């Protein structure tokens, strides 16, 4: 047994340092341009990598909602548990690269009847064994076990990146739902004021009609305008309820004590984020990193599949001591051992092994395509948001100017109506246009803030954006 130990050690060393039949991994060339489109202005003063989400979203109420979502959202819990699952699977697969040694101890007692024994007398026998056993350890000459371990590791890393991607999306979704809720609240305030003013105008028009100063046409116009405002208010209340339900679903827990809400104009979300070259931005996104890890796993599976063409050598061994009596287990001459190397070579399997390699190679082609598609989608998302950031800002500026102009028009038309120069329909048209302009200003302001939140996610987030939460409220 002592002479065989160096040979076994040499075999183990050879197994641990065997060849690798997996293709050399080369990251595919990104199938996107080297620069953003001309319309997507990437200039900015702040690097997203330097901004955690608490800094990017300064509203304390919004930060409280995000922190609660990161702590309680059920989908995020599932994603986190899947990371733990993938980590455990990797640990199981990695353990196969090293031998498993078990300690065993047993006692066997038996009795043979007299009519079955050669001596014609009943026999009593017992045996004690204590041993160390090596069970079916595979010498990994061709890298099959190693590649399976690398595939499990890549799958674990892909799951971790997927969790980071979901976490970053959750931050953005909570911010968007919160901002939408704020938008609905501000638009409802405008709508309630409009309903109140049109209610007063209808009552005034009714009195003027009774006095013979106004006709039925002016009264009906005031009546119709009032009901139109009520329709808009009911629609906004319905949208606000939906936004509130969505936010509650994302936050996943009641928040009894919250800081006061800030208006959209006071959110302080600065959209001046710099987007570097696409190669820098896209590769730091967790969804792209997850797709690449899946590609690495598929590449490793090819090596494991190719190794099936070659012989598999497994070792089973046992070393210990045995005795008829317990006190004789460790006496001189009680050693016992067995050593059983097994070599198996596939001769005919009806093409199963070849099909296994073809399957692994096909899955790698799929993984490459998915990786490239993820990069293309990420490129488009960032480019669209860069354009939206600038164009929404321009739209908002123009709409604010339009709102000021419409407010001035209402003032002048009202003065003309009181002077008897303009009719009521002109005043009503001016009020409708002013109300629509004010609603559009609030809507565009929210869209601009939401685009900034989505751009923060699209650029990969900053410190702690995709990692562990720092949920201080």
Assign an overall shape. elongated
Distance between the termini: 66 Å
Question: Which regions contain 5 or more consecutive residues with pLDDT less than 50?
Answer: 1-8, 10-16, 468-473
Taking the sheet with the most strands, its summary is: 4 strands, antiparallel
How would you characterize the overall build of this protein?
By secondary structure, the chain is an alpha+beta fold. The protein has one domain: Up-down Bundle (Outer membrane efflux proteins (OEP)). The chain has ten helices and six strands. The chain has helices spanning 4-16, 53-56, 60-72, 74-95, 144-210, 216-251, 278-283, 286-306, 352-418, 424-458, and strands at residues 46-47, 101-112, 123-139, 273-274, 312-323, 335-344. The strands form two sheets. It has a four-stranded antiparallel beta sheet, covered by helices on one side. A two-stranded parallel sheet has the order 1-4. The longest helix is centred in the middle third of the chain and has 67 residues, at 144-210. The radius of gyration is 37 Å and the shape is elongated. The two termini are 66 Å apart. Residues 1-8, 10-16 and 468-473 have low confidence and may be disordered.
């Amino acid at each position: 047994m002592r002479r065989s130990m160096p040979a076994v050690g040499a075999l183990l060393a050879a197994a641990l340092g065997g060849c690798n039949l997996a293709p050399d991994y080369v990251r595919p060339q990104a199938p996107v341009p080297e620069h953003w489109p001309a319309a997507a202005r990437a200039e900015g003063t702040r690097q997203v990598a330097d901004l955690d989400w608490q800094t990017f979203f300064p509203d304390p109420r919004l930060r409280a909602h995000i922190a609660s979502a990161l702590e309680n959202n059920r989908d995020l819990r599932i994603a986190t548990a899947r990371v733990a699952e993938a980590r455990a699977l990797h640990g199981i697969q990695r353990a196969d690269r090293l031998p498993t040694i078990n300690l065993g101890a047993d006692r066997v007692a038996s009795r043979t009847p007299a009519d079955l024994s050669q001596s014609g007398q009943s026999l009593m026998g017992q045996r004690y064994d204590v041993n160390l056993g090596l069970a079916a350890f595979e010498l990994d000459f061709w890298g099959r076990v190693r590649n399976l371990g690398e595939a499990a590791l890549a799958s674990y890393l892909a799951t971790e990146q997927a969790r980071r991607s979901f976490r970053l999306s959750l931050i953005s979704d909570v911010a968007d739902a919160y901002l939408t809720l704020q938008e609905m609240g501000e638009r409802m305030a405008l709508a309630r004021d409009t309903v109140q003013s049109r209610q007063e105008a209808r009552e005034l028009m009714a009195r003027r009609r009774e006095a013979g100063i106004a006709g039925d046409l002016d009264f009906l116009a005031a009546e119709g305008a009032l009901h139109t405002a009520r329709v808009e208010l009911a629609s906004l209340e319905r949208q606000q309820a939906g936004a509130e339900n969505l936010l509650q679903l994302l936050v996943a827990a009641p928040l009894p004590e919250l800081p006061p809400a800030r208006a959209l104009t006071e959110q302080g979300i600065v959209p001046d984020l710099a987007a570097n070259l696409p190669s820098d931005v896209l590769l730091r996104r967790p969804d792209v990193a997850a797709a690449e890890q899946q590609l690495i796993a598929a590449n490793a599976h090819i090596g494991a599949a190719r190794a099936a063409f070659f012989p598999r050598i497994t070792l089973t061994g046992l070393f210990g001591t045995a005795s008829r009596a317990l006190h004789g287990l460790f006496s001189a001459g009680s050693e016992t051992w067995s050593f059983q190397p097994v070599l198996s070579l596939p001769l005919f399997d009806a093409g199963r092994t070849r099909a296994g390699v073809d399957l692994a190679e096909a899955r790698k082609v799929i993984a490459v395509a998915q990786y490239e598609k993820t990069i293309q989608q990420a490129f488009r998302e960032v480019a669209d948001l860069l354009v939206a950031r600038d164009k929404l800002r321009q739209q908002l500026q123009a709409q604010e100017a339009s709102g000021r102009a419409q407010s001035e028009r209402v003032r002048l038309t009202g003065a003309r109506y009181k002077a008897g120069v303009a009719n009521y329909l002109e005043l009503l048209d001016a009020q409708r246009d002013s109300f629509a302009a004010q609603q559009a200003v609030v809507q565009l302001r929210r869209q601009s803030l939401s685009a900034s939140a989505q751009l923060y996610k699209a650029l990969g987030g900053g410190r702690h954006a995709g990692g562990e939460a720092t949920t201080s409220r």
